[in-house]
Specification:
This protein is an alpha+beta fold and 353 residues long. Helix content is 48%, strand content 16%. The chain starts with a helix and ends with a helix. Keywords: Allosteric enzyme, ATP-binding, Kinase, Nucleotide-binding, Transferase.
Length: 353
């Protein structure tokens, strides 16, 4: 079954790439929200209407234009169990909203998992492109190409004054959400994040956890995205986020240099302790795992830790999550069992690395 291709492996092909500033920026993402004209938004659509929407948008999968961008696979949410849905959420291939509330929902996923196209989510269509490292413009270019293919074949809901119409008013206009997932351990350790957060929000950006709105920032991983979709062009949105993210990257680099100059012994001790605990612990909850993996990633970037690849650390970010952990071991686990198997999985992966 095609679903197994996307749920059995934690590391997507695109995550193996090494984009610009990949020691700090894990990924760049662009998501486009669209709806079909003259049809109710998903929250108001009847079961029959949502079926028609699914059929209409799935038909684009067969177009040669989309095939020219790569091989896409259609996955129906009705064919997935709850664990498989959770794994796709943890891999950022679908949203929690699509997993939990969608009727006649589906997702079209590219072979390398860099692009996923959600159908009957909060909006009729959500196009998402993920690239490794700091590649916002590249992610936008791919998402825009996919958007153009759909727009050529279906009639979008569009208003000359307001732009593209969406279920949530905060997405009206361009319908674009651009974001970077960024690892900022030095800014956290030097207690500069509390000063930076208000400055980021003042320029129209939002800071969230790695699973977007409502999620907690764990493991020093933050998702920084635009809040404004109306009144700015797509280019302005991408450029504004790029400019601010570039400054944050420079602040993180400076904070890392400061740590090594002023507190190198303590930093090395923290990193080596985390590596030792990850290598030998018998039980570990998800929050501790995220924090200690963050320490080891920082140690790898600073040259304090060697013999561990960034691919393994990227993989463990996903594999240590609740859904994938249970999928990996083939059965549901209670909290105590998850903590035991999480520690075992991390030990095994680090020893093989």
């Amino acid at each position: 079954m095609v679903t197994h291709k996307f749920t059995e492996h934690a590391l997507s092909d695109w995550m193996r790439g090494k984009g610009p500033d990949s020691e700090i920026v894990i990924s760049s993402r662009v998501r486009i929200a669209r709806n079909l004209n003259m049809l109710p938004f998903p929250m108001l659509a009847t079961n029959q209407q949502s079926k028609e929407i699914l059929e209409t948008l799935s038909h684009v999968l067969e177009s040669k234009e989309l095939a020219n961008l790569g091989q896409f696979n259609e996955v129906l949410l009705s064919d997935l169990n709850e664990l498989e849905k959770r794994v796709l959420v943890e891999k950022h291939l679908i949203s929690p909203n699509l997993a939990n509330e969608s009727r006649n929902g589906a997702v079209l996923i590219s072979d390398n998992e860099a692009a996923s196209i959600m159908i009957n989510e909060e909006d009729h269509l959500r196009i998402q492109c993920l690239y490794p490292g700091f590649q916002l413009e590249e992610a936008w270019e791919m998402a825009s190409q996919i958007d153009d293919i759909f727009e050529d074949q279906v009639d979008y809901a569009f208003d000359e004054t307001r732009g593209y119409l969406t279920s949530c008013p905060t997405n009206v206009g361009t319908g674009i959400r651009a974001s970077v997932m960024i690892h900022l351990p030095a800014l956290v350790l030097t207690q500069q994040m509390n000063r930076l957060l208000p400055a980021i929000t003042q320029v129209g950006l939002a800071v969230r956890g790695i699973y977007g709105e409502g999620s907690e920032a764990v493991g020093n991983l933050f998702q920084i995205s635009n809040q404004i979709t109306l009144g700015q062009s797509e280019t302005e949105i991408i450029e504004n986020l790029y400019s601010v993210a570039k400054q944050i990257i420079e602040h993180e680099k400076a904070a890392r240099e400061k740590l090594m100059l002023e507190s190198s012994t303590r930093v090395k001790d923290r990193i080596q302790r985390s590596f030792g605990i990850l290598s030998f612990a018998e039980v570990m909850d998800s929050k501790e795992a995220s924090q200690r993996l963050s320490d080891v990633r920082l140690g790898l970037d600073l040259g304090i830790i060697d013999g561990v690849s960034s691919d393994v650390l990227n993989e463990l970010i996903v594999m240590s999550q609740t859904g994938f952990l249970q999928q990996y071991y083939g059965h549901k686990l209670n909290t105590e069992e998850r903590d035991f198997y999480r520690a075992k999985l991390i030990r095994d992966k680090l020893s093989k690395s």
